[in-house]
Amino acid sequence: MTAIAARVAGEAAELVLAGHERMRDGQSVRVDTKSTATDVVTAVDRESERFVRRRLAELRPEDAVLGEEEGGTAGEGVTWVVDPIDGTVNFLYGYPWFSVSIAAQVDGVSVAGAVVEPVSGRRWTATRDEGAWLDGRRLSVSAPAALDLALVGTGFAYLPERRRRQAALAATVLGGVRDVRRAGSGSLDLCSVAAGWFDAYYEHGLHPWDWAAGALLAEEAGAVVSLPGADPALGTDMTFAAAPSIAEPLHALLVESGASGV
């Protein structure tokens, strides 16, 4: 299933890259909005998801598919969780930090996944109990000596009132760590934890397609991972991944800073 995820995500990434290059050449792409005026979806998102669904129907016809743009429900066996472009705002602006993310889940638990970056071509893959990989190189999380030496990634929601609460939380976290990054793609932020590029990452409001593959990568690389609903102290919809050496103090800082109220 990991091979299928990587194959289909790679093929979809070529389609997304073609859309990215058309935009760079000055061609327009249709853009609609979802939850707010800043929550965008492009025609390329929809084209990518339709492509992934067709390919999975050919390769795994008995499996269910849950996608960001066309929905779906989990099946009794394997369910493929698909984000056709994770980082759509980045894609729209030409900022090359976006990906195609595909994971296979059984009973809501990711067992295989791939995250492919259209612009760089990097391929992130993971198989449960078998490790995480970037272009054939096995990944391992970092080991910062203390929380104040940690580089932490985060993200923000689309609703202005929630963004303000998240910004206040990030400001508090910033006082206790080396620095904070906001790159705009949850799947790639989780991959960055797996690679040791970030020491930790947290974000409220991610959906399963945002974390299904990336969280598996982080976990298989050795991170302490908590998914939405697993830890009420962090809030009902918090995704959290951290190197073991700073997981406990970062968790404590988030709780003390009011993460559950965001």
TrEMBL record:
Catalyzed reactions per annotation: a myo-inositol phosphate + H2O = myo-inositol + phosphate; L-histidinol phosphate + H2O = L-histidinol + phosphate
InterPro entries, sorted: IMPase (IPR033942), Inositol_monoP_metal-BS (IPR020583), Inositol_monophosphatase-like (IPR000760), Inositol_monophosphatase_CS (IPR020550)
Pathway participation: Amino-acid biosynthesis; L-histidine biosynthesis; L-histidine from 5-phospho-alpha-D-ribose 1-diphosphate: step 8/9
Cofactor: Mg(2+)
Amino-acid positions noted as binding Mg(2+) in the UniProt annotation, renumbered to this chain: E68, D83, I85, D86, D210
UniProt entry tagged with the keyword Lyase: no
EC number per UniProt: 3.1.3.25
Pfam families recorded: Inositol_P
Alphabetized UniProt keyword annotations: Hydrolase, Magnesium, Metal-binding
One record GO biological process: phosphatidylinositol phosphate biosynthetic process
GO molecular function, one term: metal ion binding
Enzyme class per UniProt: hydrolase
PROSITE patterns the record matches: IMP_1, IMP_2
Function: Catalyzes the dephosphorylation of histidinol-phosphate to histidinol, the direct precursor of histidine.
Family: Belongs to the inositol monophosphatase superfamily.
Domain of life: Bacteria
Name of the protein: Inositol-1-monophosphatase
